[in-house]
Amino acid sequence: MLFTSFEFIFAFLPIVFVGFFLLARIAGKEAAAIWLAAASVFFYGYWSTTYIPLLLASIVFNYTIGYIIAKNQEHNRTKAKIALYLGVISNLLLLCYYKYSNFFLSEVARSTGVHMPTLELVLPLGISFFTFTQIAFLVDAWKGKAKEYNFWHYLLFVTWFPHLIAGPILHHSQMMPQFRDPDIYRIRSKNISIGIALFAVGLSKKLLIADPISVYADPVFHAAAAGQAISFMIAWTGAMAYTIQIYFDFSGYSDMAVGLSMLFGIKLPINFNSPYKAQNIIEFWRRWHMTLSHFLRDYLYIPLGGNRNGETRRLINLALTMLLGGLWHGANWTFVVWGALHGTYLCINHMFQKLPPVMRLSGVLPKALTAPLGVLLTFTLVVIAWVFFRADTIHSAEVIITAMAGLQDAVSWETVFNTLSAHTFIGYLTVSLVIIWVFPNTYEILNLLEKNITVDDHERRRTSSMVSVTAGVICVALIGTSLLSTFGTNVISPFLYFQF
């Protein structure tokens, strides 16, 4: 079930919302939490019930292992450590089986010439996210950070429908105290208003920007995969279109996930913070898919040694972390190259920061000039890397990169895009870049509104009421326009991160 679908917005969400608060009032908090967990499992299995047993088995297994770790952490560290290793390895094996088995078999066959069977596997939805979430839980249990072991709360923690399919990656300590808090079991008008605002903005990002501009990305990558010639202008059109598509697609999902949770009084960590405003690659990764960045740092980079063993070892650990982070996104060499590119970017960025200020632009030019130059350079490097992320093969990515460098012959626009208008694309691109670079992001706007709403001055309260009404009208208009854009099309457009 998609957040953008009519059945989700007008059936699933209202039923779950009303049922949650009614049960909390009539039957108590535990019943309401179980209701949310059951609704989340239903949400997961709406498209296919095939992998519900796998999801539930994974939850029961990890809950048991976590409980064993916690109970033996002080008195029997050896048993706790064995349980930790068993749990982490089992999770990784499960992920590798479904995500990388066919990739491994095909590579063995390609390198040896020996025919290898293909496994009939369909990647379970959200397996990367619920696996990483539970690995983090096991490690937190080992560190003594996971304190509560109410099974129904744990089930809800893992399956919570706003995050289950595409993140954010959650931590036990972030969510479990919230499920104990009696405040979330009472309706709060502030939570509803913020939740609807975030959902409306996220919905419009997905349906009014990401999906429409995707029609300019797909033909370019399909043409490259088919061996069709691509020119400089066409290559940059495809690369920029995908750059904008994945930004607003993932940003839209992140906004909707936080907004949906807020409707129930549950706070999710922010996962997206204007990454294309970053002035360098280090900053980009502090803003893009923030919970994944934190996971890779805390559970891979630091265990590898982090920066504890000298600068050379630090750069190796950083490059290896990004390489594996790239592979996490999918079983394809294109993701490995994408991860390697970002690992290389990060290493160069860290080495550059070690230079004395006089050897850097920031030591020579004013910040008013270096800041936009840094943003532009970072953005360009990210666009180049996205080509490998989106391409089906390394060869097709190389075709597009070569064309972006102006090393291929000119090809007419109509050859690739048929009847698609170049002027329409320029319009979408211009509006998108203005939104990205000029306007504050959703959370910055909400912070400003919240400051206005909480002041005591009478005149400001009146002004804030007008702002709230205006914001409500804008939200209704955004939701209505977004849904009307898909009405009658019968087009289902999943979020891009569903496939990871």
How much is the radius of gyration in Å? Answer: 24 Å
Largest sheet: none
- Oligomeric status: single chain
User: Which bin fits the share of residues in helices?
Assistant: over 70%
**Backbone structural class:** mainly alpha
User: What's the total number of strands?
Assistant: 0
Query: How many structural domains can be distinguished in the coordinates?
Result: 2
Helix count, DSSP H or I runs of 4 or more residues: 21
Envelope shape: globular
* N- and C-termini, Cα separation: 17 Å
What's the average pLDDT?
Answer: 89
Q: Would you list the SSEs in sequence order as H and E?
A: HHHHHHHHHHHHHHHHHHHHH
β-strand amount: under 5%
What does this structure look like?
70% of the residues lie in helices and 0% in strands. It contains 21 helices and no strands. With 500 residues, it is mainly alpha-helical. The chain has two domains: 182 residues, no CATH class; 309 residues, no CATH class. It is globular, with a radius of gyration of 24 Å. The longest helix has 36 residues.
Structure in a nutshell:
By secondary structure, the protein is mainly alpha-helical. It has 21 helices and no strands. It is globular.
Topology:
Elements: H1 6-26, H2 29-44, H3 52-72, H4 77-112, H5 127-142, H6 151-159, H7 161-164, H8 172-180, H9 189-214, H10 218-225, H11 232-263, H12 281-287, H13 290-301, H14 311-328, H15 333-353, H16 367-390, H17 394-404, H18 413-417, H19 422-437, H20 442-454, H21 458-484
Helix pairs in contact: 1-2, 2-6, 3-4, 3-5, 3-6, 4-5, 9-11, 9-21, 10-11, 10-17, 11-16, 11-17, 11-19, 13-14, 14-15, 15-16, 16-17, 20-21
